[in-house]
Fold this protein.
Amino acid sequence: MDLLLKTITQSPSLLDAWGYAFIIQLTIYFGICGGVVVSVLALKRLKIGSVLDERPLKQHQIRSEILSSLGSSLIYAVYMLACFRLASGIHPSSFFEGLVQLIAFLAIYDIANYTTHRLLHTGRFRRFHHQHHRSVRVTPWSTSSLHPVEAILSQIPLLLFVWFVPVSSLMIIVFYAVLMLFMAMGHSNYSPVSHTFNAPKLKGYIRFHQRHHQLGHVNYGFLGIHWDLVFGTHFQEEKDSSKTG
């Protein structure tokens, strides 16, 4: 891993370095989204939890999502390469430093993503976000199924964070992997706690992004609905769950 990171960071050939970054992006996408798919299948087999949206997938939906995600990964690789070139070393100085950087990054990305997401639902920007919302019934493969303009916008907070905060190359990969994990779980269309115990807030949290795809005008948040609560865009799960399932 160290050799790969050094190659990407120090290679005089930007094309070669970008190619390696693209491979890392594909590994993150297929590894994490595939892992979520396998986990959902295992939960189904064990009869733990349930599917949130029972509607059938559109024809060739998963193939379309994966092809679109390959394009997004090409764009992500450009940003990853830029972040690597700004990186401060290969590893964080300690586990604690890395953890603090991850928490700080997620906090900043969370509000930046909410703002960008709201923007993508307005005016001229709406047409760029439409591609992602073609997946009304979401799958983990929907995660990076984005219009190129949205893919570009989504990476700006990460680049700015690395620009202002000295982080290592390894932490940049951690950032991308954690973002992918949260997004893949949010698009899993599955609740492992739906039939186990009465916890409406937890159940609402698990399905908050699925509600966004289902309804389109609520739950714009990334890590949860806290910013939606602040700005009045949250879906009131407890009151309306009987109507919408």
Summary: The beta strands are 50-51, 190-191. The longest helix spans residues 14-45. DSSP finds eleven helices and two strands in the chain. The radius of gyration is 18 Å.
